[in-house]
Amino acid sequence: MPTAAPSAASVKLGPTGPATAAKCEGVMIAVGADPQKVIEANPEAKTFCFGKGLHRIGRALRPKAGVTLASSEGAVLTGSVPLTGWRADGAAGRGRPARWVVRGVLPAAYELKGRCEDEKTNPCQVGEQIFVDGKHLTRVMSLDALESGTFFGDYQANAVYVADDPAGKSVEMSRTRTAIEASAADVTITGLTIEHFASKPQGGALQVGPGWKVTANEVRWNHAVGVMVIEGDKAVVSGNTVADNGQLGIGQYHSADVKLTGNLVTRNNTDGFWIADWESGGIKSTRSSGEVSGNDIVANRGIGMWSDIAEYDRVITGNRIRDNAADGIRYEISYNATIEQNVVEGNGFGTGRGSGPSLWDGGGINVNTSAGVTVAGNLVKDNRNGIAIQSRTRGDGPRGKYVLKDVVIEANQVVMDAKSASTGVVENKDSPAPDGAITFSRNSYRIGGQNAERFAWRGKTMTWTQWQEAGFDKDSISS
Predict the structure, then answer these.
(1) What is the pLDDT of residues 315-370, one digit of tens each?
(2) Spatial distance between the Cα atoms of 58 and 182, rounded to a whole number of angstroms
(3) Lower CB count within 10 Å: N or C terminus of the chain?
């Protein structure tokens, strides 16, 4: 019978970010220099050290194979440009608050994509952000909606409006899309702060390629994804602070044997992407494999850790996943995973479309129409739901039809005696969970009373006794 807490409960994440980087020794890149020209002018060099200060990146850097881009002096790579020449808008004082405008600074209007929490005006689809004295302003989509703390970008008129007087303040707009592109293999990125890039939805401010090592960086306040591993087999992303990005902290796509370890991933989805169901929040991976371990994934406005679409041989272990707006962990239409020894606490209490108390809305850990998944030795505490198992009609994948089978839930501690609704299985009428597809065993539950209907199966809510009579958790305990 499980008594010990998972390993993650007794471990604290150590320092992350540039302060933990090793000393950089190599070719110096001074503030004001064009980094790409310095790289190209030194073809034999393997290490380039960014000097202390603000480096404005006007085009994505493309390092060569085996190169290290680093700093041990607090270098900041920014994709923003200063905005000057503000004028009070001529219409001020006509029955509405004052506003200020600067013109000629926006790019031409471009194709938009992405699903936003506000699906009527879709503010998350546009990439440029405004920062005043380092503070991120909220985008509104019309002049009438402009108020203190917000901005409006009129792409047709090429004008940016703010409601607060910018006089005497530093006003910057993110404009460059990407800081560093995955242009070659075996690159190392360490000791850098990467901020204010106008990355498009699903695009990363920092792109990571095969064999890359991304360690001890801070990636913050970029519009879409902070760190994006794209076809980056065997990449390692470790010891980074990835915070306050507009859509997602870390993304992984079509990349095998990647390690995402020991990162602080927090407060991502600042630009209003759909919380429940459009890859917003902490970490999302698609069509990939590898290890997600020892991370703190905290207070993201979306899912904490999401594997979605043809994931395989995935290990999610020893993470502390707390206070995310949607599921703590979601494993969806994928194959072969081990989810073990995690602390999953306080997740799923976001609001908006797709949020709610039903098991269809997810849980601390959510296994959705996947096969060969073991969920073992986790602490699942005070989430919207405990462990949610879903069987849906989802079509075929590269390793066979997406079905719910060979799912083992064992030796977990599940606390749902206060905020949490239930643990159990929900299913589409066209895709019922096959008999024997899910095993619950050796778990311990705190349910706040033996008559509480904290379990669900075959469309019914159940007490602990009814749940055991249905064939689940016969060797488990509840209190």
Answers:
(1) 999 999 999 999 999 999 999 999 999 999 999 999 888 888 889 888 899 999 99
(2) 17
(3) N
Average pLDDT rounded to a whole number, residues 136-165: 97
pLDDT surpassing 80 at residue 420: no
| Closest among 178, 196, 123 to 153, alpha carbons compared | 123
* Closest CA relative to residue 161, chosen from 150, 169, 170, 171: 150
**65 found inside a domain:** no
Residue 180 belongs to a domain: no
Exposure string over 91-115, b if 16+ CB within 10 A, otherwise e: eeeeeeeebbbbeebbeeeeeeebb
Residue 241: beta bridge partners?
A: 218, 264
Asked if 419 and 323 sit in the same domain, the reply is yes
pLDDT tens-digit readout, 120-143: 999 999 999 999 999 999 999 999
Say yes or no: 339 and 463 in one domain.
yes
Q: Which two tokens stand for residue 435?
A: 């008999």
Q: Say if residue 435 is in the same domain as residue 320.
A: yes
User: Please, are residues 69 and 188 in contact by the beta-carbon 8 Å criterion?
Assistant: yes
Tokens of 8: 């993650």
Query: pTM for the full model?
Result: 0.96
Overall number of domains in the chain: 2
Do 155 and 281 fall within a single domain?
no
Token reading at 187: 């690159």
142/156 Cα distance (integer angstroms): 12
Residues in CB range of 436: below 8 A, 6 or more apart: none
- What pLDDT was estimated at residue 362? 83
Q: With helix as H, strand as E and coil as C, how does 370-410 read?
A: CEEEEEECCEEECCCCCEEEEECCCCEECCEECCCEEEEEE
Maximum alpha-carbon separation in the chain: 74
Which domain does 363 fall in, by range?
7-16+262-478
My answer on whether 269 and 162 are in the same domain is no
Statement to judge: residues 280 and 159 lie in one domain: no
Is 256 inside a domain boundary?
A: no
Domain boundary among 120, 146, 174: 174
Mean pLDDT value across the chain: 95
Residue 3 has what pLDDT? 53
Last residue of a domain, one of 148, 174, 200: 174
For residue 1, the model assigns a pLDDT of 47
Q: What single string gives the DSSP state of each residue in 38-61?
A: HHHH-TT--EEEEPSEEEE-SS-B
Whether residues 291 and 146 share a domain: the answer is no
Do the domain assignments include residue 29?
no
Same domain membership, residue 280 and residue 155:
no
What are the residues whose beta carbons fall under 8 Å from the beta carbon of 474, sequence distance 6 or more?
Answer: 441, 468
- In Å, how far are 155, 208, 259, 456 from 184, measured between CA atoms? 35, 9, 19, 50
**Rounded (5°) CA angle 120-138-245:** 100
52-90 tens-digit pLDDT: 999 999 999 999 999 999 999 999 999 999 999 999 997
